[in-house]
Amino acid sequence: MTFNNKKLEYRVTLNTELNLFIVFVKDDENTFATGTTIENAVKELEKIA
Questions:
Q1: How far apart are CA 7 and CA 16, in angstroms?
Q2: C-beta of residue 36 within 8 angstroms of C-beta of residue 21
Q3: Distance between CA 35 and CA 5 in Å, rounded?
Q4: Burial state string for 7-39 with b = 16 or more CB within 10 A and e = fewer than 16
Q5: Domain coordinates in residue numbering, the chain
Q6: Residue 29 phi/psi, 5° resolution?
Q7: For the segment 9-34, what is each residue's pLDDT rounded down to a tens digit?
Q8: Which superkingdom (predicted)?
Q9: What are the beta bridge partners of residue 33?
């Protein structure tokens, strides 16, 4: 699924082995961040995107 907030569009996946959410910039698979919640992952992505 693709989501967006005021700053960027992103996709969310869940790694069930590690119990981590992975958030990718919609148009760049190489830019991503992880977090234990979607909100944490998005905050980390905003720092690097």
A1: 27
A2: yes
A3: 17
A4: ebebeeeeeeeeeebbbbbeeeeeebbebeeee
A5: 10-48
A6: -65, -20
A7: 999 999 999 999 999 998 899 999 99
A8: Bacteria
A9: 23
